[in-house]
């Protein structure tokens, strides 16, 4: 990761530091857009009503700008999920699944929220969600609420939080009250 | 009086034959290329090729414009075709609209799932199955699974979906399948009509085109012109082949008729002679078609194509007649025809009949028809020439003096020095060439006869690879006396096959029992389900370590209780779902015989298909305890069958050759003379074979037939040369030679036109016989020696 670019960006951006929250969102987005590759660890907990305890999974996230995102779940069961050009392919055991996002619109918010944020693609985010930004460039929270009423029937709200160009946590609140929390760790060993 | 009688008989024959020909059925599909099938397995194979699921498949690619437009066209086409009764299923990757299927599978999951066993519902089994489902909730697929959990904690629904989704699907973009390179949208349609029903296939293809045109019309004007439709599949092939054959037969007939008419006009310089000369040809063709219609019930278009060759041969007779009648009228003997010349022609007809008779027992309907057509055609042409035509010849029919042509030919032959040595060298060179090609002389693949072009075959391979429908090569056929027996056997075969699928030897397989298990299996699954009370007592223990309380699983307990008492499923329960199509295509009934047809899917490593190790499959199937199950290698069987027919044809040809030699021995009464007749023909065959190997590399059945015809036709020439020595009238020699040259030209033209055909069976025959007939004449002349000939006075 080239640290020079964000530093230079910070220096140039100093005169604007006192600007409004909307500008901070743009700064976050621009910073995110600078990042072309990422490889981090994650821990995810799902709080599902039918289950008495949250189920926990761990693994790695890999990102290549602008639209390739891979989620490698390592525990409790190995599973590989790849999003590429709008198609999700999943490998679980020796089974292989392919699914087109357009056919499963209910899955779109789960994926587009993370992908578009990672890409710093504010326009794409705004197509699907109403955005509410809170905090500063150094510590921010971004609330995403689906614009589409049908989508809102599965996902009520997504809360992303992070620092500068790093996303640290993604919380998804589903309409039925279930919720999942994805905590992103440090850079994984390459 | 005699004149009146023969003409009346001829007129009666023409009337009867014309009626038969007019009422005959004609076909131009691929059936002439499909061998008839003596063994039950081979009959099964041919039935599969003609009527099976694979034969009903049409693969469709939409190309041009941009991806989003292609997807829209795909969706619109599929919508229209799904409402069309000519198609039993249309798949383009859309998941929508499968609610009825989902309902059937979910409601009957405890009867359908292969994992429903008594062990599954023990404390340990429940713990493992529910644990796996909880793990799945943690996974990204959790969203789709969690709503199922209270009703289906053991994951039977997912198991069923896994069972049914064997094989690999293409990628989807904007809701429709796309090719691997993303450049075309893909659909797969299954027709109601069998692959052998060419009319039905043609209608289905027209409907496909209409659906495409309608879908394109809804797109933005700028995109419309860029879109194109590509189709492939067995039905598409037979429709195209039929079109090609029909077109070719018309084109070739017109062309060779025109050429031969031109030749005869040049030779005769008399329209009367031309018209009279064509009478035996037309009579022969009429007799041939009538005989085939009577003998086979249906006349194949390809037979008419072969029939062109008859023009070349039967026109010979009238050429001899006119040229000889000129000779005789000059000698003041009137137009009485007969004597030694007629004996030679009679012998020539007989040798040709021997050659064609060898085709009659052939397993290929196309060849057997060719044999019958040619024999009846030649006999009719010869009889008409012998008994009808001479009575019609006007006195002093003036045809051009062709004696100089004969003299020129003789002079040309005379100038050749060392003819014998040249023949020996040519024969040796030919034998050497054949020897060098000895390991690859025969093309042993049935596709050698297929009229499908290489470009179409490449498109087919591409679409198949894209769609993940590799050519179904291996089928397991499980016969039985009734539906239940077949389903039970299919279930027994499925067990070892599943192990092969798990170990990656095969990618998967289809089975009717997955849509509808046998009653015995359904009963066994029902018996595996514990009573509600029992299940309730096991659940607390099973879920003790899991994040789910047993009370939450009350819907599960009541669903299981309902399944225990539910009526068993039968075929009628599949009605109204696409699963019925899947079931009906894998479980078929032929008379009293039922059978399951289980296609095997090849495993993949990423993007390539791995060849199936068929020995492992055979071992697995024979270990399964379903003794009557057969592993069928469609391509292997077809090629083996073709190989059998190839050896059959070689054997028959040798028999035909033997008959010709025997006939000559009887007629000529001298082994030396027979050798003089046969040797030039043998050299001609050797040289042509060597030439074909050098140019085309491989020979097929039709080349063998061609060689037989070289001998059958060529023996006519050799016989004339043989008789020449006995000819007393010196004037007759150049005229006889001239009639031979003209007859030979007619034959070479007829077969030469055939050689230009794009239908492989026709071009193979033409490219063998045309040069062979020419060489047979030249070599026969060379062997006949250099008796001095003087040009006849005009």
Based on the model shown, name its key terms.
heterodimer; A: 190 residues; alpha+beta; outer membrane lipoprotein receptor (LolB), chain A; 11-stranded antiparallel β-sheet; 5 helices; 11 strands; 46% strand; B: 794 residues; 5-stranded antiparallel β-sheet; 4-stranded antiparallel β-sheet; 15 strands; 8% strand; disordered C terminus
Describe this structure in words.
The complex is a heterodimer of chains A (190) and B (794). Chain A is an alpha+beta fold and 190 residues long. Helix content of chain A is 25%, strand content 46%. Chain A contains five helices and eleven strands. Chain A has an eleven-stranded antiparallel sheet with strand order 6-5-4-3-2-1-11-10-9-8-7. With 794 residues, chain B is α+β, with helices and mostly antiparallel strands. Chain B has a domain at 2-27 and 237-449 and 637-783. In chain B, strands 9, 10, 11, 12 and 15 form a five-stranded antiparallel sheet that branches. A four-stranded antiparallel sheet of chain B has the order 3-6-2-7, with helices on both faces. Chain B has a two-stranded parallel ribbon with strand order 1-8. Residues 333-338 and 786-794 of chain B have low confidence and may be disordered. Classes of the chains: A alpha+beta (190), B alpha+beta (794).
Enter the CATH topology name of chain A: outer membrane lipoprotein receptor (LolB), chain A
The fraction of residues in strands of chain A falls at over 45%
Q: Overall mean pLDDT score of chain B? A: 82
- Tell me the distance between the termini of chain A: 12 Å
Rg of chain A is 17 Å
